[in-house]
């Protein structure tokens, strides 16, 4: 029994260390789509514009801790835009409480996002990025509410909220 417990703890510790290393280095197993984006900058220029966590998430495909972003609790009417290039991405009308600790939406705005395959952390997921600057936003899953059945699970740090007039 003791050996089994030690093995489980060792495996859990290894997975945690790998996830932490992926976040720290930005090595995420992303499959490149070789897209050309309207907004392109050097890493140095992005680092000047973004704070360290925004840079790691938007440019290196990291993930913020669950419950970290105040946007998860944002309830006002308005739009959620890319923190890298200001492109409106999601309407507050499509935001819902998923219970995951990240801002979640069932549908993006038209012509706002792109997707690619993410094979990090020993699984295959659909990564969501800003279609204008390529900034990593989060992932989309097939367990959302009607009408789409999708859950766009976004990093709040990758976005900024723009309240509607009078909100």
Textual characterization of the structure:
The protein has one domain (2-163): Peptide methionine sulfoxide reductase (Metal Binding Protein, Guanine Nucleotide Exchange Factor, Chain A), CATH 2.170.150. The protein contains three helices and nine strands; from the N terminus they run αααβββββββββ. Helices cover 24% and strands 24% of the residues. 29% of the residues are buried. The chain has a six-stranded antiparallel β-sheet with strand order 3-4-8-7-6-5. A three-stranded antiparallel β-sheet has the order 2-1-9, with no helix packed on it. With 167 residues, it is of the alpha+beta class. Residues 13-18 and 20-34 have low confidence and may be disordered.
Chain-wise SSE layout:
Layout lengths: L1 H24 L17 H7 L2 H9 L17 E5 L5 E4 L3 E2 L7 E2 L7 E6 L6 E6 L5 E6 L9 E4 L4 E5 L4
Antiparallel strand pairs: 1-2, 1-9, 3-4, 4-8, 5-6, 6-7, 7-8
Radius of gyration: 17 Å
Structural class: alpha+beta
What is the residue-mean pLDDT, rounded to a whole number?
85
Helix content: 10-25%
Strand content: 15-25%
Question: What's the CATH H-level homologous superfamily?
Answer: Peptide methionine sulfoxide reductase
The residue ranges in which pLDDT falls below 50 over 5 or more consecutive positions are 13-18, 20-34
């Amino acid at each position: 029994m003791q050996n089994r417990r030690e093995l489980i703890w060792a495996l859990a510790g290894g997975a945690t260390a790998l996830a932490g290393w992926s976040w720290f280095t930005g090595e995420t197993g992303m499959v490149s789509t070789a897209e050309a984006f309207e907004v392109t900058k050097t890493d140095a220029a992005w680092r000047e514009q973004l704070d360290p966590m925004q840079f790691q998430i938007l440019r290196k495909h990291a993930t913020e801790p669950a419950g970290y972003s105040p946007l998860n609790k944002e309830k006002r009417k308005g739009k959620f835009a890319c923190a890298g290039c200001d492109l409106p991405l999601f309407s507050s009308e499509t935001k819902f409480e998923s219970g995951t600790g990240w801002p979640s939406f069932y549908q993006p705005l038209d012509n706002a996002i792109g997707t690619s395959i993410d094979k990090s952390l020993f699984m295959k997921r659909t990564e969501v990025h800003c279609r204008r600057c390529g900034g990593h936003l989060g992932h989309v899953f097939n367990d959302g509410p009607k009408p789409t059945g999708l859950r766009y699970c976004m990093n709040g740090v990758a976005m900024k909220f723009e309240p509607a007039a009078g909100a």
